[in-house]
Each structure stands twice: as C-alpha cells, then as structure tokens.
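Dear support,

Our group has been running a series of protein-ligand predictions, and this particular one with S-adenosylmethionine is the one our PI (initials K.S.) wants archived with full inputs and outputs. We had some confusion internally about which version of the output was final, so please treat the block below as the authoritative record. The input we submitted was:
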Amino acid sequence: MDRALLEFWEGRWRSGHTPWDHGEPAPPFREFVERFGAPEGRLLLPGAGRGHDARFFAEEGAEVTALDIAPSAVKEAEAANAHPRTVYLVGDILALEDDLQGSFDWVAEHTCLCAMDPAFWEAYARSVRLALRPGGQFLGIFYIEPHDEEGPPHKIEPATIDILFAEGFRLVEAFRPAKAYDSRIGREEVRWYRREG
Ligand SMILES: C[S@@+](CC[C@H](N)C(=O)[O-])C[C@H]1O[C@@H](n2cnc3c(N)ncnc32)[C@H](O)[C@@H]1O
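Confirmed final output from the archive:
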C-alpha cells in the first residue's frame, strides 16, 4: 500500500474535510440503474468513501465489496451504510489482494480514478482489469469538467478514458448524466465498459 496516498486520504477523513461527500448515492448511478437495470452479482467499489454507493448497489441486489485506502472512511461507512450484502474493506485498489482478483462481475467507481494523480491512472486501469472476471463490466463516473483544473479531482478527457481501457475492454455505453449533484451538473460523464480479454 502506498504510504503517502494512505496518509493523505486518512488525513482528509480524520479531519472531516470530505467536501465530495453529499450524503447520498451518486445520482448518475441511479440514472444508470433506471436506464439499464441494476448490476448483478459481485461488485467491487474502489474508493467507496462513506459507503452511500455501496449501500445503493447492495439494496439493488448486488453483493458489494467496498474498498477504501483510508481506515477512517471504512469505519464511517460501516457505521453509516451497513448492509447485509456489503463488506467494507481497507485496501489499495492499486495493490489488489490476490483473493479479490478475477472474481468480480462489476467494478463501479465514482470519483476514485479522478481523485488520483494521473501518474496512477494506468495502474488503476490494470487493477480494474485484474479485479474483473472475463466478461465482467466496469462502470465509472468521471469528472470531465472539474471546478479547479489542477485537481484533485483531476479532469479527464473521455478519449483518455478510452485509451486507459483500450486493452481488453469494449465500450458499451457513454453518456452525460441528466442526474447529478447540483454542483456537478454537466461536469461528469458515465462510461461503461465490458472486459473481453
Ligand atoms: C474523492 S473521494 C470519493 C469517495 C466516494 N466515491 C464518493 O464519491 O463519495 C476518493 C476516495 O477514494 C479513496 N482512495 C484514494 N485512493 C485510493 C486507493 N488507491 N485505493 C482505494 N481507495 C482510495 C479515498 O480515501 C477517498 O475515500
């Protein structure tokens, strides 16, 4: 586990400086479920934060493994969003434990990749591929127009996401969500890929 990353994020959670947390699941995930149906099977949620999305997918029927590098985030998620179909784990998506590899039907993420320095993005995409079983699917909500160009969250171009997930993935659908937190309207893009290789 990357020590510097762990300390940065644990510090944010301990100090209570979590402005990204809106106290509810990401509206674009709701929109996805309304349009395409709920993800089924085992779902990995990296960068799960306080667990609102984890609980949402569990309530929709998935078996959720919610991962966060910050122990304090995991503690808060367990207190705020416990669900019989959700397990909260402390872990680094960039150093995926052996027992999590190749076993997921879905990886879903919301501002996890965009929270990372771009230097980590290729490793992140490799970890997503490693987590999924063949035929598994990746659903991400990405910040394409953040308020601060420097980040975090870091701006990412849809074309860059396609490059990151070019090897072994096929794009199923991409859309600008109509549903978003007020401060993010028009700033996000949902992209959905299927692992083929
Ligand atoms: C911007 S927050 C988003 C949290 C949540 N997805 C949400 O939108 O409310 C990013 C989260 O990713 C976690 N995180 C950052 N790097 C990570 C890594 N390498 N592995 C797992 N979690 C990570 C942080 O601790 C933080 O909770």
